[in-house]
Amino acid sequence: MLRWGVTAGFLGLLSCSGEPRLGTHETLLTVCDGGQCYQCNGTLGTSQPSDNLYVMTSFGGGSDTQSTACGGRLADGQWYYAADRQRFGCGTHLRVTNPANGSCVVLQVADAGPDLCVEEAAGRPVLDATPLAAMDLFGAGSLGWSDGRVVQVVVGDPQEPLGPCGPSPMPDASPLPTDASPPPPDFGPPPVDDPAAGSPCSSDLPSPASCRSIAPVAASSSAIRSAIARIFG
Known about the structure:
By secondary structure, this protein is of the alpha+beta class. The protein is 18% helix and 18% strand. It has a domain at 44-164: RlpA-like domain (Barwin-like endoglucanases).
């Protein structure tokens, strides 16, 4: 929950989340952190950090259910809303990511605030949002600025549904590595001795080397058969 050190002022001017309500005499409220105090005067921060990093706080739900500056649905903790109307405008969809683990939610801007004094105490801009976002991103039922939970906030697609972000598009699969060496030479199929075409060894042309290497063996076999016939004939 938000932890406010209110040293002066009226507690009745605070919402249950600790955020000063707009249109009240917030100059009577002081926020203190570590001995350093900041005066609340109803000023809202409008600058957007170049790194898109904000401290996340939560508001709304249960006894803290309240109306919103943009009108429409209440901040009742039952849907995905955020404040910071002064930075992003009512109805804007925000993609809010926990940079520590990549978990992400889409929120719709529905309210204004918080007061600049909260951001001065937190040390950076603050995004006040539904407790649902605190649970999805950090597993916490509520968050305050002194919890120091940092999120990355960017404007999202207005057509993207509210709630946990869908899976990111898968990158194109990288082609498998290929062997860059040239393929071996193709010598074609081995020669086939086709009887219809005539044996290359029976050609009138000079015998190829393969036939010449077989010829002595064939001759020797014939001589052996003749010798055996003479002996036993």
